[in-house]
């Protein structure tokens, strides 16, 4: 079974053109390439935050976009967890409040991710009463990952999870990511320039350049 099938074409007014397609049946796939290749745009299209002029996207066997058929599932109904480069935590909410925001999307769904278990796996218990502005970059990343997981996603997107972290934190964050994926077996697409993270986690690497597929490696 393919966890993800992606096809999209989009021409921007500035001249950049995305013409990109790939599929993967691996639990963890990395999307790599130079800055400006369109990697984050691909994630945003999968999540439903951007819509290509032409495209078809299937996530865990569900069609979330088909421009020919007029299908465009809204982002809030795609059940895709997205951890952004800038984390996008709510500064006026505590860590507990940020996590509860994700939990609201989980509801009472059978098989939902346990709040207490996720807090344990990500080592967040001692941070629950703190605000994002008082957290380190690594702590913020763990909270953002926890919030994305608490919607009980069918698929997880990680956009440069190591950005703005010093070397001493990168290994720790990659360990937390690995724990989450192993515990809940959530299919994941990672955009990263961190070669160590890609080598450690991803079973397949998709390379893109200037909006197009360069090559795929196992």
Notes on the structure:
The chain has 218 residues and is α/β, with parallel strands linked by helices. The protein has a single domain, classed as Rossmann fold. It is built from six helices and eleven strands. A hairpin with a 2-residue loop joins strand 4 and strand 5. Helix 2 (95-103) packs parallel to helix 4 (137-149). The chain is globular, with a radius of gyration of 17 Å.
Largest sheet: 6 strands, mixed
In round numbers, the mean pLDDT is: 91
- Please, what is the CATH homologous superfamily? P-loop containing nucleotide triphosphate hydrolases
CATH topology: Rossmann fold
Instruction: Give the strand line-up of the largest sheet.
Output: 7-8-9-3-10-11
The SSE order reads EEEHEEEEHHHEHEHEE
Number of helices: 6
Total count of domains: 1
Record the SSE blueprint.
Elements: E1 4-11, E2 17-24, E3 28-32, H1 39-47, E4 54-59, E5 62-66, E6 71-72, E7 80-83, H2 95-103, H3 115-121, H4 137-149, E8 155-159, H5 167-184, E9 188-191, H6 195-201, E10 204-209, E11 212-217
Parallel strand pairs: 3-9, 3-10, 7-8, 8-9
Antiparallel strand pairs: 1-2, 1-4, 4-5, 5-6, 10-11
Helix pairs in contact: 2-4, 4-5
Supply database-style keywords:
globular, 6-stranded mixed beta sheet, 27% strand, 11 strands, 218 residues, alpha/beta, 5-stranded antiparallel beta sheet, Rossmann fold
């Amino acid at each position: 079974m393919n966890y993800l099938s992606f096809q999209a074409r989009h021409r921007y007014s500035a001249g950049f053109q995305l013409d990109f397609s790939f599929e993967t049946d691996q639990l963890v796939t990395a999307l790599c390439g130079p800055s400006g290749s369109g990697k984050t745009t691909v994630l945003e299209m999968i999540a439903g935050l951007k819509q290509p002029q032409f495209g078809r996207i299937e996530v865990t066997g569900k069609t979330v976009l088909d421009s020919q058929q007029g299908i465009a599932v809204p982002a809030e109904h795609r059940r895709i967890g997205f951890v952004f480069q800038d984390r996008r935590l709510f500064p006026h909410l505590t860590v507990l409040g940020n996590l509860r925001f994700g939990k609201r999307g989980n509801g009472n769904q059978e098989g939902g991710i346990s709040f207490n278990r996720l807090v344990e796996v990500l080592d967040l218990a001692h941070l629950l009463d703190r605000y994002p502005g008082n957290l380190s970059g690594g702590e913020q990343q763990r909270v953002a990952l926890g919030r994305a997981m608490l919607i009980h996603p069918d698929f997880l997107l990680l956009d440069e999870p190591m950005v703005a972290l010093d070397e001493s934190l990168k290994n720790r964050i990659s360990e937390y990511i690995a724990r989450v994926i192993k515990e809940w077996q959530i299919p994941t697409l990672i955009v990263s320039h961190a070669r160590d993270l890609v080598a450690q986690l991803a079973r397949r690497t998709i390379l893109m350049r200037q909006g197009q597929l360069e090559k795929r490696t196992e």
